[in-house]
TrEMBL record:
The lineage of its organism: Bacteria, Bacillati, Actinomycetota, Actinomycetes, Kitasatosporales. The keyword Hydrolase applies. Belongs to the peptidase S45 family. It comes from Streptomyces griseorubens. Pfam families: Penicil_amidase (PF01804). Transmembrane segments: none annotated. InterPro entries: Ntn_hydrolases_N, Pen/GL7ACA/AHL_acylase, Penicillin_amidase_A-knob, Penicillin_amidase_dom1, Penicillin_amidase_N_B-knob, S45. Gene3D superfamilies: 1.10.1400.10, 2.30.120.10, Glutamine Phosphoribosylpyrophosphate, subunit 1, domain 1 (3.60.20.10), Penicillin Amidohydrolase, domain 1 (1.10.439.10). The keyword Thylakoid does not apply. This is Penicillin amidase.
């Protein structure tokens, strides 16, 4: 068997091989060559060993991964594939073979800077990478916040703070059927919103063999094209369904001469699995981690003695919290869907593949060249009590067990259009908290402005900056007693009430609004009525972003300002004081001067260039998320943009932040950044004659 690597003008790899297995090896090889440092960081994160070279700052993550049994779960899932789907298991092994070939002698400069060498990938490593990437995707730490907030402020507060906080993962996606396009064929477009990393979290790639020819966005370290792909006759895309499929159980644990026991719902103490692992920490002593697993799942917080440094509430046992998540229960991650997706020819094929999907739970859109469409949820969500979905539940009480799986909901289209933007759509029965409807409504409204669309016209929707969630704060501003304001505050009030509500990088009004919003958030957080929730419980550091009060207020500000009552807080007085605060120290420039990209890198950048300013905001279609009250910097945003044209695949478009290569100094390390910043898209090249052959492999 043989294969070859081709490149287009953007350095995007186009791979051609004699069969699916050889193509998987080739994908692993080119991924290791292009993204070697990136995927090695992910391997270490997936097995809980990143602190060995990144230091104590990532120790809390490593401990969570060890305690959640990510690597062991990946091994279980691979073993199940080998038993039930040996072809997929062999395909994954071929990918890993390619990764190891590509990492052999890898000379990416980051390895030398970190003082590490590439390690060896095991057949289960891609599954562990996928699990660790999506461990916090369903937002189970939000249940820690709800528990904390309800205990400190009362049960009614949960609805007021209805947001998944700074860890929220979002995306936009829309499907326009042939009767609404200039070609008579469907178009699918969108952009996944994730933490922006350097290199990016998505890899543009083409996989071609006699069985299939697919372009799409792959996750480096994972074979195939899971989320966004176009086979020529059918295309698909996803967004996070915001489903709740992970549970947290309060456990009662006790040590015995034989180990640790956990109290079950039948009143019987049963032996829990227990062992210890050692986490190496660069520059510090190793840390020993006790790994405990009850019948509910792995214990991820606390233990028989409770929290580290924590004091149990009077009359309460020491706190231990177990996490229950579907792949740990079933041994199935959904990788059996990956090859069928590549082989899909019609919407029905994508639908059947989606039936095999497990985690994360997504809303899926698909369309084919015969006019078929698909709008459904894909993934596994357990049936259990409503209490499980909202908060921590007691493991020792009956009624909190899992009782099978929900049937994934389906939905239709409205006037030839379907929009998915993490709102309460088809996945509503499966979740608790969803994104506000603003992005979905705005996309639908923009699409309704004209009857027929082209693929080229979709970029304008990607980059829309209208901020509908500004309304409650502006309503409070409008209701202020204007004569009672100072002259500068009155002038700023008039400016903001006349503002077009677009968060454009060059807008001074957008900067002023953001400054006012942050001042309101900080002042609300300082109110005595909310002080009880200001000090989070001593949970591990990895959960702190979900428990910090200021970000919680920032992301829930719309609800908090619109609520009939907020613990007696005088919100007009808060807004008035915040307005005077801003005029006393106004922003010195435009929104993009402070709203700058802040990508995550495993190692600090050696590039002295300042990161670019951005348009957009959390609730804009152009979702570039700052944390109001904390920072204007944007760590999250569009991790890719795509437009899949079913009429002619070569008329499709895409872009990623930075570029196709993860190697600093490569001409393709940052060459797509100007396109990404401007909202432009690069063409998807499918003509082999227009590609440059790099090598036979």
């Amino acid at each position: 068997m043989s294969g070859a690597i081709f490149r287009d003008a953007w350095g995007i790899p186009h791979l051609r091989a004699d069969g699916a297995r050889e193509l998987a090896r080739l994908q692993g090889l080119v991924t290791a060559r292009d993204r070697g440092w990136q995927i090695e960081v992910e391997r270490h994160r997936a097995q809980g060993s990143s602190a060995s070279f990144l230091g104590a700052g990532v120790l809390s993550w490593d401990v969570l991964v060890r305690r959640a049994r990510i690597a062991d779960t990946a091994r279980r899932c691979l073993a199940r594939l080998e038993e039930r789907d040996p072809e997929t298991a062999d395909w994954i092994r071929a990918y890993v073979t390619g990764v190891n070939e590509g990492l052999d002698g890898h000379d990416a400069p980051e390895f030398a800077r970190a003082g590490v060498l590439p390690g060896r990938w095991e057949p289960w490593t891609p599954l562990a990478v996928w699990l660790s990437t999506h461990l916090l995707f369903a937002g189970f730490p939000a249940k820690l916040w709800r528990d904390h907030a309800a205990a400190r402020l009362g049960a009614d507060v949960v609805g007021l703070f209805a947001t998944d906080g700074p860890g929220t993962s979002g995306s936009n996606g829309w499907l326009v059927t042939g009767e609404r396009t200039v070609t008579g064929q469907g178009v699918i477009a969108g952009d996944p919103h994730r933490f922006i990393e350097d290199p990016g979290v998505y890899q543009q790639i083409r996989l071609s063999c006699p069985e299939f020819d697919v372009v799409g966005l792959a996750v480096p370290g994972v074979p195939g094209i899971a989320h966004f792909g176009h086979t020529g006759t059918v295309a698909w895309a996803i967004t996070n369904a915001m489903a709740d499929y992970q549970d947290l159980y309060r456990e009662r644990l006790r040590r015995t001469g034989a180990g640790i026991e956990a109290l079950g719902p039948d009143g019987v103490w049963r032996r829990a699995a227990r062992h210890t692992e050692t986490v190496e920490v660069a520059g510090e002593d190793p840390v020993e981690v006790e790994v405990v697993e009850t019948e509910r799942g792995p214990v991820v917080i606390g233990g028989p003695e409770g929290l580290d440094g924590g004091v149990p509430e009077p009359g309460e046992p020491p706190l231990a919290v177990a996490l229950r998540y579907p792949p740990r229960v079933t041994g199935d991650l959904g990788f059996g869907a990956l090859l069928p997706l590549l082989r899909a020819r019609r919407v029905a094929d994508v639908d059947r593949a989606a039936d095999l999907w497990a985690e994360p739970v997504n809303v899926l859109l698909a369309a084919d060249t015969e006019g078929g469409t698909l709008h459904r949820v894909a993934g596994r969500v357990p049936v259990r009590s409503d209490a499980n979905r909202v908060r921590l539940v007691p493991a020792w009480e009956p009624g909190h067990e899992w009782r099978g799986w929900h049937e994934p909901p389906r939905a239709g289209l409205d006037d030839g259009v379907a929009v998915m933007a993490n709102q309460r759509g088809p996945a509503a029965p499966l979740g608790v908290e969803f994104a506000p409807p603003h992005r979905a409504r705005r996309i639908a409204a923009l699409l309704a402005r004209q009857h027929r669309w082209s693929a080229a016209g979709m970029a304008a929707i990607h980059t829309d900056t209208h901020l509908a969630s500004a309304a409650p704060l502006l309503d409070h501003l409008a209701a202020l007693d204007a004569p009672g304001l100072t002259a500068p505050a009155s002038a700023l009030r008039a400016r903001l009430l006349a503002w077009d509500r677009h968060m454009d990088a060059g807008s001074a009004d957008a900067a002023a609004f953001a400054a006012l919003r942050s001042a309101v958030v900080r002042r609300l957080a300082a109110e005595p009525a909310l002080a009880a929730a200001a000090s989070p419980p001593p949970y591990p550091d990895v959960f702190r972003p979900w428990l910090a009060l200021v970000p919680r207020i920032g992301f829930a500000l719309e609800h908090l300002l619109a609520a009939e009552d907020l613990f007696g807080i005088d919100r007009p007085a808060v807004v008035r004081a915040a307005l005077e605060e801003v005029v006393a120290a106004p922003p010195s420039g435009a929104w993009g001067d402070t709203h700058r990209l802040a990508p995550w890198r495993a190692l600090p950048s050696e590039d002295p260039r300042e990161e670019p300013g951005l348009s957009g905001d959390h609730d804009c279609v152009l979702c570039t998320s700052a944390v109001p009250g904390i920072t204007d910097l944007a760590a999250r945003g569009p991790a890719a943009r795509y437009v899949w044209d079913l009429a002619r695949r070569e008329d499709s478009r895409w872009v990623v932040p930075h570029g196709a290569s993860g190697r600093p100094g490569s001409p393709h390390h940052r060459d797509q950044q100007p396109l990404w910043l401007a909202g432009d898209l690069a063409p998807v090249v499918t003509d082999w004659a227009r590609l440059t052959k790099e090598t036979d492999v």
